[in-house]
Amino acid sequence: MSTLPARAERRCHNAVNPLHSCLFFSPDLGAEMGKLGLDDPSAVYFATRAAAFGAVGAGTVTATFYNFNPALVARHVPAVWSVATPEQVIEARWRAADATLRRVLGEAAIASAEMAEAARLALRATEACTPYARPLYAAHAELPVPEEPHLAFWHAATLLREHRGDAHLAALLAAELDPLESLVSHTATGKGMAIGWILASRGWRRADWEAGSERLRERGLLAAGEELALTDAGTALRAEVEEATDRMDRAPYEHLGAEGVERLTELGRGFLFTAAAAGAFPSEATGR
Predict the structure, then answer these.
(1) pLDDT on residue 288
(2) In the chain, what percentage of residues exceed pLDDT 70?
């Protein structure tokens, strides 16, 4: 039985993960990858997130990223590795993360005791992460931990993100939600990204989205009509997916303990609010 308050691990993840994720919206990442010859946003994303695997092919990226159109992945992978090596991408990613965090948080936060504390807590949580059946986590866990507290915190946030993300994919598979159905049903909860953003960034067409929506309607998970709304069964299924993800992602937070989780959540939220106020997240990614 868990010793944590209900959904404490989810709240902590929701506070810590966005500071990792803001890198993918950062102009600093585009600038660093542009120096390597990678200019296409999809190529930058695939290379940045997959570099820890080494020079893998499209199949590995499609399998582990899950909700991207395989055709979009194949357009850029493995071609990206002929432009920049995984090692070069990883080094550029560190430089971009450093520049981004300094820009959206400010030098005072970077050098603060709170940042050092957040790094210690997040790294302690990762001590209980497990690699089996978690390929993205396992790949990133082999990278060295940076010495600078803000980069150590960002690295730990990456590990916690991918550990939970790998578990989430297992939960989606168990719920029999394919990539499009996962995206549509998540958006229908009101918590997903804007549909236009999803289609553009994930490489799907509007027809693909509508086909996925229709499959959900046939299963009784999405309400009939043009409005994107889950049925009671759809709401219950999405709740089951999140609860299953929580169960499979509980170990790091149990290891940290209730007091540590509460403190890491508090610190993460503080950094998140500062980053959001500095424009770390594009407004066009939200809403429908």
Answers:
(1) 46
(2) 98
Q: Is the pLDDT of residue 286 over 70?
A: no
Query: Tokens 């010793």 belong to which residue?
Result: 3
Using CA atoms, how far apart are residues 62 and 260, in angstroms rounded to an integer? 35
Tell me what the pLDDT averaged over the chain comes to: 96
Q: Considering the entire predicted model, what is its pTM?
A: 0.95
> 257 CB contacts (<8 Å, ≥6 apart)?
3
* Whether residue 251 has pLDDT greater than 70: yes
170, part of any domain: no
Produce one character per residue of 90-99: b if its CB has 16 or more CB atoms within 10 Å, e if not.
bebbbebbbb
Q: How many domains does the chain have?
A: 1
Residue 178 falls within a domain, yes or no? no
Is it the case that residue 152 has pLDDT exceeding 70?
Answer: yes
Q: What is the mean pLDDT of residues 229-256?
A: 97
> Which structural domain, as residue segments, surrounds residue 94?
8-161+258-282
Q: Copy the structure tokens of residue 227.
A: 């409005």
C-alpha neighbours within 13 Å on the C-beta side of residue 139: 19
pLDDT at 1: 55
32 occurs within a structural domain: yes
Dump the DSSP string for 36-59: HT--SHHHHHHHHHHGGG-S--HH
Report if residue 183 sits inside a domain: no
Residue pair 32/95 in contact (Cβ under 8 Å)? The answer is yes
Long-range CB contact pairs, 67-72, < 8 A, 24+? 67/179, 67/180, 67/182, 67/183, 67/202, 68/179, 68/202, 68/203, 69/202, 69/203, 69/204, 69/208, 71/203, 72/42, 72/202, 72/203
Any idea what DSSP says for residue 226? S
